[in-house]
Design brief:
The chain is of the alpha+beta class. The chain has a single domain, classed as Jelly Rolls (Sandwich). The chain is built from four helices and ten strands. The protein has helices at 4-12, 32-43, 64-73, 101-107, and strands at residues 17-20, 51-55, 76-85, 90-94, 113-118, 126-130, 133-136, 143-145, 153-157, 163-171. The strands form two sheets. A six-stranded antiparallel sheet has the order 1-2-3-10-5-8, with helices on one face. The protein has a four-stranded antiparallel sheet with strand order 4-9-6-7, with no helix packed on it. The radius of gyration is 15 Å and the shape is globular.
Length: 172
């Protein structure tokens, strides 16, 4: 069993990798993410509020967490991370662009599966939207299996504490 409270305490002491709109923002090889940023601009998002922080195994937390999670969902690991959204910040509507997608697809024979886990305790204002389903006040440890690993999604934090989620991409 993963102790989510200890995991959050461990990563909360670290900076993680900030994602904000600007020159330092994620730049993928083929520019696919630029299309998403253009959609945000057209929608009128305030770039100062677009922000999330990613944490990775062996860099920010113990890799054993990934092994435990992989066992829990009965999948082999391709990619995973923990995301944090601070109060007043959000990750607008997008799908995840990744330069290593082809590598993951090859590992998985084109059958990637994605799960997300609500690792924070339920808090008013912690919102996650996956396609047409809105998740709010989810019990700590709630798992959701994505319809597709490339599904459109968004997250926001209208609450008073950071919102943490664990994201896992795997295969049989």
């Amino acid at each position: 069993m993963i102790d989510y409270n200890n995991l959050i305490q461990e990563i909360s002491l670290q900076d993680g990798e900030f994602r904000t709109v600007g020159a330092e923002f994620f730049q993928n090889r083929n520019g696919e993410f630029d299309e998403i940023k253009d959609l945000w601009k057209l929608a009128g998002y305030n770039n100062r509020n677009v922000e999330w922080v990613n944490y990775y195994a062996d860099q920010h937390f113990d890799k054993q967490i990934i092994d435990q999670f992989a066992k829990m969902v009965n999948l082999k690991h391709a990619r995973s991370w923990i995301s944090k959204i601070r109060p007043g910040k959000h990750a607008p509507w997008h799908w995840d662009v990744d330069d290593k997608e082809e590598e993951y697809q090859n590992m998985a024979n084109n059958e990637l599966v994605r799960y997300s886990c609500f690792i924070s305790k339920p808090q008013t204002g912690h919102v996650f939207i996956l396609e047409d389903i809105c998740y709010h006040m989810q019990p700590q440890g709630t798992l959701i299996k994505w319809p597709s690993y490339k599904s459109w999604h968004a997250g926001t934090n209208l609450g008073l504490t950071p919102k943490y989620m664990f994201h896992f991409l795997g295969y049989k």
